[in-house]
Amino acid sequence: MRYLVLACRSLFKKGQHNVLKIVSLAVGLAVGLLLLAKVFFLRSYDTFYPGCENIYRVRMDYSVGEENGESFTTSGAVAPGMAAEIPGVETYARLVGYYPEYGTVMDLKGNRYSVEEVGMVDTTWFDLFKTPVLAGDPGKIFSNPLGAMVSRKMAERMGGISQVIGKQLYVEEYPMHRFTVEGVFEDLPENSSLSQEILISIHTPLLFQRLLSNWNGGERFQSFVRLSPGVDPSSLSPALDEMIDRHVGFENLEQEGLMMHYSLWPLTDYVMMHEQVRVMFRMLLLMAVVLLLVSVLNYGLISVSGILNRTREIAVRKCYGAGNKDILRLSLAETALHTSIALILAVLIVLSCGNIVEEMLDVPVTALLFSRGGLSLLLVCVLLVLVSAFLPARFMGKVPVASAFRNLSSRRRSWKTGLLVFQFAASAFVLCLLLGVSRQYGAMVNNDPGYDYDNLVYLNVSAVDTSFRTSLAQELERLPEVRGVTLSTSLFFEGASGNNVFMPGSTEILFNVCDLYFAGDAYFDVTGLEIVEGKAFREGVRYSDEVMVSKSFAEKIKPLVDWPGGVIGHRIGVTEHSGMGSYFEICGVYEDLRV
């Protein structure tokens, strides 16, 4: 305590540059610790579930012709089949995500409530993911095809937990399917890879029930299993392959040009398995370490440069019996005080820029600073105090007692120059890294998506019948402000489903395609999508057998078929669309676009 009092007395002492040291350290801590907090946050995903070390996602590795891929969605029967047929699998749960078109659900009074995603789950969901349940019995609720549970936040938006029980909700696309809220569960933390605010029964009419028993096809289920303690997931691979072979038949798949293999992936490693997340993790960690190192070096250099101004003070203390341990304790007290003040300033800086931080790191500041990683940040601060205090204490301990009676100067500048060079090099590295990230961000934002999005607006009319949609499009087209109107099933920026391509008369799958489904008249004129070969669809044809493909599709199919004149005029089959022997004629090729 005595050393801390001495440190407080010298806080504003002339010649020690304490304000400069604290401010520079605060800025470095604000940025460095924030980046480090994001690193710890990425490593903490899904670790809050009890028994998370035994929970696994089911992963499917597949090949379609010459194309290989991986997916964490499976057919409906895979997860329950594992629990029933493979020893070591205790229980399972499935999730099908549903995204309301308008991002809202409605009650019977017409009130809208925003929601990002609705999840369709099994009765075993809360047996696997032991989230606190605030009201209701999940087993009974999800046994009811129209039963639902909402999160605490969702319940509060609807008037509170007591008010939400019994409320009927529906999505605008399917107003005839109304589900009843019968329970409430605790909000999931920010570091959860699952973000559903509404959970409804997987037996809901919104989902084709035949998909639940499919062993092949309909891969839209996120499947989870819990293994018995001590079971090695890799040891279950032979049993998994045997199960799939028994129910599907690898020979049948090979005849169709398909192959699949299931494996188990730890739940807590799911976020980090994505390559872009791993790259971001390494980059953030590198920047955080460099920034904190630069801050510590800057603090140390300022402290050491002021030692000559404190030589008489240190020498006098030694005359009164202070030893090297006392000097070290004084340095530790000063550094701890400066770091504490700098840390408080850093937190204030971060909180004042909370909106900017959340936009850049995609995580609320409170979740970053006050999560389980907060203890790690405190340990980092303690380490910084020890490192920052060592250099000044080491050089103050070498101050001779004679300097109390005569001026002392040092000509040993090589070590200072070396540290300064290192600091400048580290600062230059961070600057170059930031410039590189800025250029990458600019390239991503300004990248041409392949279509003209200026003045392009859309309206979801999936909840109305075909005749009304047609009338609405005709009325819009009459407006002088409207240059063109078209209809389409999919939006480019919302992603797309996949389907397989095959040749007429053959069951062999050539490859998987991104399927944008159906488009109306004037589609290419309205979107500005460039046609590079052939022509657009014939207009006014109600049931057309024409199909248009992208430039990359034309290049991919070229080595697989004998079409010397190109793809125009040839016919293909597309799963989901080519039932009852119907095939489609390629009428045009459009430029590649970003989906």
Automatic annotation (TrEMBL):
TM ranges: 20-42, 283-308, 335-357, 377-397, 418-437
Q: Which domain of life is it from?
A: Bacteria
Listed A to Z, the keywords are: Cell membrane, Membrane, Transmembrane, Transmembrane helix
Could you name the Gene Ontology cellular component terms for this entry? Answer: plasma membrane
Q: Where is the MacB-like periplasmic core domain?
A: 22-241, 453-592
Ranges for the ABC3 transporter permease C-terminal domain? 286-398
What one GO molecular function would you report for this record?
Answer: transmembrane transporter activity
Main location, first listed in the record: membrane
Its topology with respect to the membrane?
Multi-pass membrane protein
Which subcellular locations apply to this protein?
Answer: Cell membrane
Note the Pfam families from the entry.
Answer: FtsX (PF02687), MacB_PCD (PF12704)
Indicate what this protein is called per its UniProt record. Answer: ABC transporter permease
Question: What organism is the protein native to?
Answer: Candidatus Pullibacteroides excrementavium
